[in-house]
């Protein structure tokens, strides 16, 4: 699965980092950064949690 | 459990519905919303949408494909009007009776209004589009209430070239929420830009051409925005047997009655992390609580107390304000990082002997995260906050 992040929607809450710190980080302004675009099964649940808690609906998972 | 009804199709209701599916629930899932629109996001309403930077399409919380993937029985544009706990039925305004095995109440809040003529409020997309159309350069806007919503709207209106007057009953805006010092810092941001701020005034009514204050003075305006807080949407639960008291009263599992849970702005639940009951009107809480309520409804035997560190943010002019924890009723505020005069700082809030909250303006994520951690672990104030930090009165 591939993670898509709409950085211009991001509100810098950092909720995604709390949910999946191996996939997301934040820049100095707090805007989310993708550490990995492709996520394996081991990270899938965490990424889904990040999608659910993101207060800006800025993250999506796309099937490939 | 084969029939679950979620009442409320905004952030909390959607999060609950998604979580039910993620957790493997494959029965009928009905999502009821009184607005005719598919679930959309509200925080941008008083920010990018009011500013005219975003079109409303950007607010959709999920695209049509993702929404269809949830296989919902979606009932939009119809309000719930009643609940029968004994025969487990939700009644809708169109006369439908929805039987359920499990129910999640996520009906949110609505704006408080003032007596007199109708004024603008900011809650729905329709509200903000109506206000946006009127905010043309040179017009005069009175904003009643200098809380976070009123302050955000004032900042956007100022950017649009509107003459803004903010009216606030308290001596210092937001002092009860964030402390006097931070409230004064936020106040200065308005004043520097020429936004008129009048504190300690209460508004009696909205009139044809402005608002009338309690002392009789008329403050003239072309448009009036009322941002004086909200009321939980619980009237449809009257007589149902659920306990309602400034929200749907729940235990630490977000449970209001057997197989009935509540989430989001409407839920008043016991947060064991802070040892108090609270009702939180924050975007992140809506999602987190929707998820928690859904999980506890499906797996009551493995129920988990909902013990989050509340989080909110606010954008005002060039400032991003972020806060963690439960700030209300704090005993002390201290600057723990940065400099308030430069508008780059973190303040911590003491409640009892604990770090109960933190608020940051213009600081990098790492500077804030450690304070979230301190709040989440119930860190002791005297072991966490350097005693050399300049204390400011709360």
UniProtKB/TrEMBL annotation, chain A:
Coiled coil: none annotated. One of its GO terms (molecular function) is 3 iron, 4 sulfur cluster binding. Pfam families: Fer4_15. The keyword Ribonucleoprotein does not apply. Its cofactor is [3Fe-4S] cluster. Transmembrane segments: none annotated. Signal peptide: none annotated. Keywords: 3Fe-4S, Electron transport, Iron, Iron-sulfur, Metal-binding, Transport. It comes from Streptomyces guryensis. The keyword Metal-binding applies. InterPro entries: Fe-S_cluster_ET. This is Ferredoxin. It comes from the Bacteria.
UniProtKB/TrEMBL annotation, chain B:
Residues 3-290 form the FAD/NAD(P)-binding domain. Its cofactor is FAD. Pfam families: Pyr_redox_2, Reductase_C. GO terms for cellular component: cytoplasm. Transmembrane segments: none annotated. The keyword Nucleus does not apply. Keywords: FAD, Flavoprotein, Oxidoreductase. GO terms for molecular function: oxidoreductase activity, acting on NAD(P)H. Coiled coil: none annotated. Residues 311-383 form the Reductase C-terminal domain. PANTHER family: APOPTOSIS-INDUCING FACTOR 1 (PTHR43557), RIESKE DOMAIN-CONTAINING PROTEIN-RELATED (PTHR43557:SF2). This is FAD-dependent oxidoreductase.
């Amino acid at each position: 699965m591939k993670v898509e992040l709409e950085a211009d929607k991001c509100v810098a809450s950092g909720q995604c980092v709390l949910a999946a710190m191996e996939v997301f980080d934040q820049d100095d302004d707090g805007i989310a950064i993708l550490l990995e675009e492709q996520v394996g099964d081991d990270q899938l649940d965490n990424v889904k949690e990040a999608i659910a808690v993101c207060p800006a609906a800025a993250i999506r998972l796309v099937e490939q | 459990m084969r029939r679950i009804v979620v009442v409320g199709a905004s952030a909390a209701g959607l999060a609950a519905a998604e979580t039910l599916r993620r957790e493997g629930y494959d029965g009928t899932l009905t999502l009821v919303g009184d607005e005719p629109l598919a679930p959309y996001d509200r925080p941008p309403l008083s920010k990018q949408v009011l500013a005219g930077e975003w079109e409303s399409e950007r607010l959709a919380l999920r695209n049509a494909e993702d929404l269809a993937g949830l296989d919902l029985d979606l009932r939009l544009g119809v309000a719930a009007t009643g609940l029968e706990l004994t025969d487990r039925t939700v009644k809708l305004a169109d006369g439908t009776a929805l039987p359920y095995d499990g129910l999640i109440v996520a009906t949110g809040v609505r704006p408080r209004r003032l007596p007199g003529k109708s004024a603008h409020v900011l809650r729905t997309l329709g509200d903000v589009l109506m206000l946006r159309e009127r905010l043309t350069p040179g017009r005069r806007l009175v904003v009643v209430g200098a809380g976070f919503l009123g302050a955000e709207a004032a900042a956007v209106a100022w950017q649009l070239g509107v003459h803004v007057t903010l009216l606030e009953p308290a001596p210092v805006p937001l002092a009860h929420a964030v402390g006097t010092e931070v409230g004064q810092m936020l106040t200065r941001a308005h004043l520097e830009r020429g936004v008129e701020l009048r504190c300690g005034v209460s508004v009696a009514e909205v009139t044809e051409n402005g608002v009338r204050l309690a002392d009789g003075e008329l403050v003239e305006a072309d448009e009036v925005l009322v941002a004086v807080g909200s009321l939980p949407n619980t009237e449809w639960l009257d007589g149902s047997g659920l306990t309602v008291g400034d929200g749907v009263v729940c235990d630490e599992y977000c449970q209001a009655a057997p197989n009935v849970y509540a989430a989001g702005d409407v839920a008043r639940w016991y947060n064991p992390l802070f040892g108090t009951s609270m009702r939180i009107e924050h975007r992140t809480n809506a999602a987190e609580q929707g998820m928690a309520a859904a999980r506890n409804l499906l797996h009551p035997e493995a129920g988990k107390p909902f013990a989050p560190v509340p989080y909110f943010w606010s954008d005002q002019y060039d400032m991003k304000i972020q806060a963690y924890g439960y700030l209300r009723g704090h005993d002390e505020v201290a600057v723990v990082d940065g400099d308030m005069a430069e508008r780059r700082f973190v303040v911590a809030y003491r409640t009892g002997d604990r770090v109960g909250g933190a608020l940051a303006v213009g600081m990098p994520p790492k500077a804030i995260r450690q304070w979230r951690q301190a709040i989440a672990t119930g860190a002791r104030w005297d072991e966490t906050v350097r005693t050399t930090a300049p204390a400011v009165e709360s």
